[in-house]
Amino acid sequence: MAEPRASTPASTPFVPVASPAAFSDSPVARAFAQPLMLGLFLPIQAGGWSASTLPRGTDWSFDYNAALVEKCEALGFDLVFALSQWLPKGGYGGVFDGHALDSFMTLAALTARTERIILAATTHVLYGPWHPLHFAKFTATLDHISRGRWGINVVTGHRAVEHEMFGWNRIEHDRRYEMAAEFVDAVQQLWAQPDNFSFEPELSGWRLQGAFVTPKPRYGRPLLINATGSDAGIDFAARYSDVVFLTSPAGPQIDRALEALPAHVARVKAAARAYGREVRSLINPMVICRETSAEARDYHDAIVAHADEGSFHRFDSDAHAWRGGFEDRAKAASRAVGGNIAIVGSPEEVADKIIKLHAAGIDGVQLSFYDFQPDLDFFGECVLPLLHEAGLRR
């Protein structure tokens, strides 16, 4: 007769989980040692980040994005990541037609194509497929394969259509963060616990009973990122994230952003310090750069002139903005260009704005481009040396 199984408590006491930044020889610690971290926001979705039909080579395919990552690694970039989206047929419409790679699978494949750069997969941790045990095992394996270069951009999802695709109604905003906290707590314990781990969440439908994960991450745990601006999101970031992906509270115009960012960044960092933690701030500039300021402005204006109104309904308002006043037209133009903020100008002007972002409290820039491959090449050739000269890159 088989021996009865030993009873296991509903929850196992938590053990501390170290950030990868705490290990001086980790890829994350090396990236954080840069005065300004440098990343690329990959265009694994149709249309990239710009609602414009101006001809370009930007492509959502794996080979195109793999070449971008390899170029970034050659240029000394610290990290790359990409969005995750779940959309019905047709996507948002227009250039954003819904074709997209999966972020987790794409970045996982690139662990074998790279040697130094950190790869962070955007992941909706609340959506149907994920159980904390699967997630902890898969991510620990990728951390092991990449030798500590794996990261996760944790998102909870906000569009009703995405939740409905998984068969349930959209969860209230703050409750999503409470559920994500339970998920991340469980995953971190599975990475850190030396023995079997049991956990009974209060809000979520999954549970863990005597669970164990191997291999363990190489440097405590993978890099954790999240994008936020809400009170609940900032509190979540303060408790869990190493890097907080910010948007400008004053909109995409660079000078207004530079005025608003110091207080916003200070608020986020103060929230982390209240938990005894430090976080790095990251922002996503759309860089439009040419040899001269006039050429860059012409490039910008051509992108706007080819604005794809068919894709504007991905935003809160619609294409009627083109027929409104100056503020509405400026908002519509920013949608055509894309990015959290826009930096337009010569190499010297672009470098100057990035330097000013750093002075405003930004610890890293996650770049986007309109025509990614040639624009990234131009940035590497003409702007990156100026950032080295300014002491922002080593």
User: What is the count of β-strands?
Assistant: 12
List segments where confidence is low: pLDDT < 50 over at least 5 consecutive residues: 1-8, 314-327
Beta-strand fraction estimate: 5-15%
What is the highest CATH level, the class? Alpha Beta
Order of helices and strands: HEHEHEHEHHEEEHEHEEHHEHEH
Classify the secondary structure makeup into a structural class.
Answer: alpha/beta
- Biggest sheet layout: 8 strands, parallel, barrel
Q: What level of helicity do the residues show? A: 25-40%
**CA-CA gap between termini:** 66 Å
Give me the CATH architecture, please: Alpha-Beta Barrel
The dominant shape is globular
The name of the CATH superfamily reads Luciferase-like domain
Radius of gyration: 21 Å
According to CATH, the fold-level topology is TIM Barrel
| Side-by-side strand order of the widest sheet | 1-2-3-4-7-8-9-12
Summarize this structure as a short list of keywords or feature phrases.
globular; alpha/beta; TIM Barrel; 12 strands; 394 residues; two-stranded antiparallel sheet; 12 helices
Describe what you observe in this structure.
There is one protein chain. By secondary structure, the protein is of the alpha/beta class. It has one domain (20-389): TIM Barrel (Alpha-Beta Barrel), CATH 3.20.20.30. It contains 12 helices and 12 strands. α2 (62-75) links the parallel β1 (37-42) and β2 (79-82). The longest helix is centred in the last third of the chain and has 21 residues, at 254-274. It comes from Paraburkholderia hiiakae. This is FMNH(2)-dependent dimethylsulfone monooxygenase. Keywords: Flavoprotein, FMN, Monooxygenase, Oxidoreductase. One of its GO terms (molecular function) is monooxygenase activity.
